[in-house]
## 1
Amino acid sequence: MKKCVLIVEDDPDIADLIKLQLLDLNCDADIALIERVLDNLLGNAFNHTKSADIITINVKKQDVKKQDVKKQSTAIQIQVQDTGCGISKKDLPKVFDRFYQAENKHRKGRHAGLGLAIVKRILELHDCRIDVISKVGKGSQFRFSLLLEKL
């Protein structure tokens, strides 16, 4: 059985946000689309790991500076990480391309190669980008941030 862990940074603001009790910050995002992003990232993590591997979801608050605005903003960073097979350096630049499928002996079932392309497009619609860090045999980490606004 795979182990999936949710880590929420030890910060009262983010803990309240996760509990939906933080009333002075707002995330302008389509919840159904962000749910699709998380579903695709977690689905990939489960499909590319073995039974002893660990999948971690890390949520934390971060301060960011938007390039087109000189003021500091606050964001929530979401990271999905696994200890699975990882992605090779040659495949990393292509993982967000439509229909691209890297060679992977751990993959289960048939897939169209659209999941990460959909993730990237949804996050682009939210003015976000997604970053990936991966090492073959060590696992992968996908990370994106959603801006929070004061109400």
## 2
Amino acid sequence: MLSVFVVSGLVRQMREHDASGGGDSKAIIRDIARHWALVQPKVSAFISLMIPNYHDAQDVLQEVAMAVFSHDFEKSGAPQVFHAWVLQIARHKVVDFRRKRGRQKGMFDDSIIETIAGAYSNLDDQDYPIRDALEHCLARMQDRARKLIEMRYRFDMQAEEISSATGHGVSAVRVTLYRIRESLRQCIEGYLHARRGV
């Protein structure tokens, strides 16, 4: 659902578009609305995964919608281009939200956001298995790796805190977390690849 701000921005843009002789703004808006209806569930799922708080996630989704509907409609292009563009906007809005609010418990770091955003942009419009892939890959992890991931992302512990809790050096913790993220990324990509049957 679009907020009043998005709808009023649409109306304003339609009037400007028609006044400038830019063509049939109603047809363009229908195309944008159709594309948005297809991509919105994917964008909402991505934002919800990146921002655990429901209300914050909804606010960011509205910001994405406002950016999409206030942009030059002519640039939307084909559905695949439009969807990739919208996911880029969502990724930027998530990063902006994190910068404004600071790191919060349960939020992924930027490298994970990039990995998941890439996976989302490769998903088919009717297929959203990223959560299944993440759950599958986390379940396959060794207990030690899963505990480190939980310490880092669920409990928002920094490398120094994890080092103190586990008795391992800080640089060893950082290297291990990097390797775990890479392994997780490869597992997610492999799972998604297999699900698509390619």
